[in-house]
Amino acid sequence: MGEKRRSSSKTLAKNKKRKGPHLPNSILKTIANEKRPLNSDEEDDEIHSDGENVDMYEYEEGEPEEESKKNNRYDRVDNYEYELPEDFEDENVESDDDEDGGNSDNEDGEGDDDRHTRMLQDLTGMPSAAFQGESKRRPVLFTEAYPESEFNPTRDVLEGKGLISVEDLLAPLEGKPGFNDLKKRINRMQKDTQSVVHAPLPKPERERLERKAVKGLVEKEFNKWVHLVKRNREAPTVYFNQTVSVGYSTVGAIASEFQPRTEFEKKMASVLNDNELGEAHKEDGAKLLELNEVSMEDHIKYRDHIAKMRSLLFRHELKSKRIKKIKSKTYHRLKGKDLKKSAMGALMDPEMAKEEAIKQETRRVEERMTLKHKNTGKWAKRMLSRGLNERYDGTRAAISEQLQINATLSRKMNSTNDGSSSDESDDEEELSCGSDLDTPSKLIAKAREKTLKTVEDDEVPNSGLLSLPFMARAMKKKNEEVNEEAKRAFEEYEELENSGGAENPRKSADVSGRRVFGATSKVEAPKESKKDSDNFYDNSDSDNDMEGIENNDLVAVGDTASPARNTGAITEAEKLDDDVENPASKTTFDVALFASGSWKKMKGYQNAESKKPPKTHKPISKGQDKKESRDEESEDSESEAEQMVDGILTSASKETYEIPSQAELIQRAFAGDDVVDEFEKDKQEVLNQEVPEPEKPVLVPGWGQWTNIQRKRGLPSWMVREHEDAKKKRKLDLKTRKDYRLRNVIISEKADKKADKLHTTTLPFPYTSKEVFEHSMRMPIGPEFNPATIVGALNRPEVVKKAGVIIKPVKFEEVNPNEKVDDENPRSHQKQRPKKGSKTSKGQSKIKSKLKTKA
Amino acid sequence: MEISSKDNNLMEKVLPPVEQESDVELETTVKKYLRGEGANLETLKDKKLKTQLTSREKLYGKSAKAAAKIEKWLLPAEAGYLETEGLEKTWRVKQTDIANEVDILSSRNQYDIVLPDFGPYKLDFTASGRHMLAGGRKGHLALLDMMNMSLIKEIQVRETVRDVAFLHNEQFFAAAQKKYAYIYGRDGTELHCLKERGPVARLRFLKNHFLLASVNKSGQLHYQDVTHGGMVASIRTGKGRTDVMEVNPYNGVVALGHSGGTVTMWKPTSQAPLVQMQCHPGPVSSVAFHPNGHLMATSGKERKIKIWDLRKFEEVQTIHSFHAKTLSFSQKGLLAAGTGSFVQILGDSSGGSSHNYSRYMNHSMVKGYQIEKLMFRPYEDVIGIGHSMGWSSILIPGSGEPNFDSWVANPFETSKQRREKEVHSLLDKLPPETIMLDPSKIGAMRPSRRKEKPSRGEIEAEKEVAIEAAKSTELKNKTKGRNKPSKRTKKKKEMVENAKRTFPEQEHNTALKKRRIGEDAAAELPASLKRFARKN
Q: Phi/psi at B113 (nearest 5 deg)?
């Protein structure tokens, strides 16, 4: 197609700018469409001609070029698009011809087109090139397909070519009234370029600009505070000591200002300020009585009130009497129920409280025994195993409720049942006391006695809940049961006595024939304990004989314990049995423990003894030696010193005699001592102590000496390296010591722990460098070290405030940034508002000053 | 020749004050009162701190200036001096010459007290110089008021007295006697017998710390707090017997001179000496400290006096061929050395920082007198000489501080002032820990110390370094399928793990421990209660 176009352009026109295809397709298309409305008269012709044109083109130039495209659908569309421009070009050709002077008219020889263009020209009255060229430059979209009218301006108008300008429109109006006005307005409008509204900026950019502007404003506002803030920050002392009247100083002053406001206050004030009353009070009490008149109404009201109260009281009394008379048990029961329902009832009635407590206790025991509510139930277990907790709120709630019940039930009630618990504990104590001394058989005997006692004295309470007939019956039944249990227990005990074996407990447990639920746990428990014990005695050799006993005991314990766990209620006998069994087993356990422990100890002791002597002996002897030697030394030194002193004394006395040579004398005097050498040795010692020499790397015997090669190789390299490093470090440490260069001085660098508290470990807050801090500390600030004139300034606190002065928020105030902080002239950081009276006072002062000047 | 004793204003030459000179003078005194320079505040980044510190420095400057001005204009007396003309030498000036020139009050300070029976006398002055204590070897103790030259109390203890020392004021004094040391009251009543110390050789009192330091015959150093009587420290010096002991007035460090020629310095809070110095090849016969604490003078039996700078622990000067049995520094820095019956006063001729002591004055007493103790009297140009035949007093112009500070010591103290001062000094009592070589370091940062145990942060850092090192190690190119990427990563992971393992994690351990404890508790429960154990 492009080629085709080129060819046509070559043939038709030299002017390149008139080439249609330079335009975007869509525009061309629209332009082409636009023609139709433009020359609406010849619509049909147009279309027809179009069709003809197409045909014609195909005929003329339907050559391989067309085929070379090899396009199908898309091509067709393309073609369609480009066809119109073809049309257009034809027009152009025409127009070009017009412009050029009809050179190419004949050449083209396309009659239809010529005619068409000519017709167009005639219709519009302007050269076709005009709108052609414009369309090229400024594409305008035409979407409407309406005929031209004042509401649908032509393309030319829209293109702004000024085909129809405002002036054009105005022209016909000229001379009509109001024309001048209109013209003026239009002129103004044309001049006014500002009214043109530009497109708004993108949002982020706009916001950025806004922020910038706001920032500037805010900064300006804040910057004026900077100096003030800086001054306050850097001031060594901030003063809030402006004299402010705090208010009234005396109670009288405060009272005098009092204004009654409320009703009551006003009433009081009227009474207080009543002169008559005051006088009466002053003179005599009698007159007060006169003044204190009571109105008749008040009196009647009072009397009625009293009467009402009395009658109420009387009625209440009657009622209570009647209630007391009622003998119906049902009534009282119901009443009691009511009372029970209300928590207060329990508190009120001690008996009821006791009952309640007993019930609570039984429930608690039950709960503790069965653990019914502690997710042990089938349902709860299943729920838990399924993990439905989270999915269903209902189950979850139910489970939590159960747990809650468990908690409430198994909660221990401290206040209730004190006596019994103490009894129990007493018993236990007794038992435990006995257990240390008595044999198990004795204990069992004791228990038997006790149980007998309990069985015998069946106290039937005469009052309360237990006194009711059905309760009594229940009690009887229970007692019988208990008695049976006790008897059984005694039988067991006798059997045990008869057999005397250690294994009997188990048997007896079996004999008792109670249901056993936790069989597995029963087996496990002893195992565990056994394990524990095994672990415990692992290292002692005495296990074998001990274990047997322990096992038996432990098993027994387990057996006796487990049924107790499983039965719903514990009878006392059983309890006692348990108690009896437990201490016994415990004692044996303890004994075993002790025995093994002692065994171990013995062993250890022996070992220690066998090992120690060679080791310990040496140090002691060494120490002794050392001590001795030291003592000797010290003695020696002392004696030496004494001798020396003597020598000195003598020498001092001899000094009067002239001794030939000084040096000789000195040499002779100090012949024996090599003081300097000794000192050096001392120094070395001290250094070794304070900066210890690294230990020489030593191989653990047997390690790294397996083969000859290893032995030859010597120490591993890392050991050697470590040693070298330590040595280097020591050297460095020695070098950093103060006495490194001083041969005749040893300066101890031991840290004094007691003096630690005199130093700071960290820098105090505002300081960041040690040097600055220490320099700031160099000057003492006390009155002993400074002239009295400066001490105050040196020790002034950071804030000086008068008592009672309210510290107000900081107010803006012009501050000279170059002003130096002057501590000597205290400057208030709080400006008080000038009072109303200040003006007058100022005036007065002015007058005064004037007077002064005059004087 | 001109002589001036400080209380004597007659001989003073009043020079017209030259402005510039005074300025220079003032500047030096200001420098003295500034106690060193301030830190360089330019390096500070914190502006607030900077301004605060600059204002502080300004205040310090003002304070120093005010102090300097006070010193210049308000301090009444001037130090005495001995001025020679032409060929005259100061050491040729004799006491008789001085006596002729000075006023009557000063001339009263030249005297000899002859007490031949009670043997060589030890002397001690109170801090104010008002009172003197003389202790004769043979048991004579005398307390004197030097202002009006009156004897306050005199007692005979009938025992050997080795040393005497005043406590904080003249109301109490201690005497080292044959077997024990005793504390006496002003009226001579025995207040305490200090049995713990054994036979004491030397006694010294540390004013600011209220400690009575003593060294006994077996070379043990004791510090006893005289306020509550508790023994603060008892230290075995391990250097044998010594009777040379002096206190550094600047820091309260006690120096002992030993027979081996070493001088050791001690503080009550450490059993080891702070400093050991090999000063002399032979026994040290005496030690003295300059009042500013920077200079120490030692004398050895090998006839040498050495002056040491204690800031550097270096020898400053050696004075040859003079054996001093006793040494003493005056308040103004004159050094007195006495031996036999001869006293030599050395003066710092340079006057500045480079200490150059040379002969200033001589005094020789009657032949046969053996000097036992020399001590300058504070705030007076007088030196007291305790010797075998009693004690003497001579004038040394320019030795004493002319102006006393009543905050420090007041020779004209009334009894009320004394009581007041006693209370104040007790309130200001320093704990024994404050005795250290450089007391100006109190309140400063703690000197860095080598750490025994690395902190957690350090361990973490080390761990990170180790892990990094493990990560960055290059693996060898292996063969036979061992160079697979998977193998390499595995190997690397292993290395990192190994690196981590060398640093045990503390928190983890504690958590484990806790759990273990819980388990144990469960295991220990009796079988019947096991079901109540918490299930994990």
A: -105, 120
